[in-house]
Amino acid sequence: APVPPEVAIPRPSADEMARMNGDLKQFIATSPDKELLQKWESLITVQLPRDNTAIRPTSGGGGQHQSFVNIANTNDFDILFLGDSITYLWTVGDGDVSGYPGGKTVYDKYFANMKIANFGIPGDSTQGVLWRLQNGEGQGHKPKAVMLMIGTNNGNPAEEVAEGVGADVLELRRDFPDAKILLMAVFPRGTGPTDSGRRKVEAIN
Q1: Of 180, 183, 163, which is closest to residue 55 (Cα–Cα)?
Q2: For residue 47, which of 25, 72, 28, 21 has the smallest C-alpha distance?
């Protein structure tokens, strides 16, 4: 999926790749260490950056996804909540089977008078949100505002997650051009400021 330039990972074009590797071949051919360099040529050949799975739509959500598509087709809401378990738990009471304390008490206090659809799915990722939007959850309704929080479940490096979040935002812009989008930061992880999970989240944000 396309991503905003602000979060795009720099990647060489096919022409740039060909030129760089052509120059390296010329260098090898004229080097005193030609035989050694030819033996290990694969180590000095410029390789394409790996594919970013965070921007490749991936199906998921099962029955929850279909129920969200059904809700989307009613168009009977003004605000869309979109994300993973953190979003899902907004409308869950403390006794939910998930084992996590839900946010329903706070939700009822602040949002009871608003028409909100909560499309949060526990465990979802940037690529899952992309797929869901492209397969029914992004059609059939016109919310006035969308709240998005996603990325904590991605196993990708921070730079790739940022691309994934950017891809989700562009998809929302395409699906709902008149809606206001509130992009939430990914919540902190880990036990302290030096925790690897905490540092990754900071880099994503």
Answers
A1: 163
A2: 21
